[in-house]
TrEMBL record:
PANTHER family: HTH-TYPE TRANSCRIPTIONAL REGULATOR YBHD (PTHR30419), NITROGEN ASSIMILATION TRANSCRIPTIONAL ACTIVATOR-RELATED (PTHR30419:SF8). Belongs to the LysR transcriptional regulatory family. InterPro entries: HTH-type_LysR_regulators (IPR050950), LysR_HTH_N (IPR000847), LysR_subst-bd (IPR005119), WH-like_DNA-bd_sf (IPR036388), WH_DNA-bd_sf (IPR036390). The keyword Ligase does not apply. It comes from the Bacteria. It comes from Leptolyngbya iicbica LK. This is LysR family transcriptional regulator. One of its GO terms (molecular function) is DNA binding. Gene3D superfamilies: 3.40.190.290, Winged helix-like DNA-binding domain superfamily/Winged helix DNA-binding domain.
């Protein structure tokens, strides 16, 4: 008897064997496989001929596996599982060749965090689009994710239990003073700081809300001399000596070299996180983007220099 060549075996033959083992008869196996009974019988006959062994005992009550048939069937099941896994991997790959990831966030995240992530994601998945919408309030971001208009949101933590959240970084607030300023000669206190000519974002801005909440704990009210929406405009006004500002450091980057950066009397930190709606069914592109974000940001944190307040 010559050597057995397992590569001559056909998947259809092994499927027939598994189907018979599951159903107990050739006729039921044929129904399960949507084949004729003669086709199933022929497949098993060829399989046994190729192997040179008997895998099934036929009888009036149906077909029963021989001891060797049970072992071969177990291996066939593992092969079927592997083939199914191969199909799943291919399907996932096809799903990652196209699609869209929708992101809601705010300007400092879009400027300083997302570009590197998107660059890596674009290299890995060139067929997937990334759409970014910027908002001034974390509530707006959360609303977009909640309503299904965004797959991923960047907001302040903590947030509500309806979201799955991942902390990205802790961004400290700093006081930025004009060049050659003598605004804060002497002790740096909240009482002195609140009397400065402050340039801040409008009341509906998320950062302004955090600043006012912080002042409220000191029982002081902040009354800016200017309210300006864009961070870059605020920094330009501070450079011109029109006032000072309190701003999250990430939002202020790159900080103009001629401005004086001063710590606040007590630390103020915004915790920036990534959120997804817990009950949402995410697509493969969204899963892939989150994986890329975590990989890129984890690598970036290894080389970041620590700052007061923590990142």
């Amino acid at each position: 008897m010559g050597d057995i060549n397992p590569f001559r075996l056909k998947i259809s033959q092994l499927r027939a064997l598994v189907a018979i083992a599951d159903s107990g008869t050739f006729s039921d196996a044929a129904l399960d496989l949507d084949l004729s009974q003669s086709a199933v019988s022929h497949a098993i006959a060829i399989l046994e001929d190729e192997l040179g062994v008997v895998l099934l005992n036929r009888g009036r009550q149906g077909a029963a596996l021989t001891p060797l048939g049970e072992e071969v069937t177990a291996e066939a099941r593992r092969l079927m599982d592997s083939l199914e896994r191969i199909g799943q991997l291919a399907q996932q790959s096809r799903g990652l060749q196209q699609g869209t990831v929708r992101i809601a966030g705010f300007r400092s995240v879009a400027t300083h965090i997302l570009p590197e992530v998107i660059q890596q994601f674009r290299n890995d998945y060139p067929g997937i689009q990334v759409k970014i919408e910027e908002y001034h309030q974390s509530q707006q971001v959360e609303r977009e994710v909640r309503q299904g208009n965004a797959d991923i949101g960047f907001t302040y933590l903590p947030t509500t239990p309806e979201f799955t959240a991942w902390e990205l970084l802790r961004d400290r607030y700093v006081l930025l003073l004009p060049p050659h300023s003598d605004y804060l000669k002497g002790p740096n206190t909240w009482e002195r700081l609140v009397k400065l000519p402050l340039i801040l974002a409008p009341p509906d801005d998320g950062c302004r809300n955090l600043i006012e909440q912080h002042f409220a704990h000191t029982h002081l009210a902040v009354k800016p001399v200017y309210e300006v929406r864009e961070d870059s405009t605020i920094l330009s006004m501070v450079q011109k000596g029109l006032g000072a500002t309190i701003m999250a450091q990430l939002a202020a980057e790159p900080i103009p070299a001629n401005l004086t950066l001063t710590e606040l009397p007590t630390p103020l930190v915004r915790v920036i996180g990534v959120i997804q709606l817990t009950e949402a069914l995410q697509t493969p592109p969204v899963f892939a983007f989150m994986d890329t974000l975590k990989q890129v940001w984890t690598a970036a944190q290894r080389v970041m220099q620590p700052v007061a307040g923590g990142w």
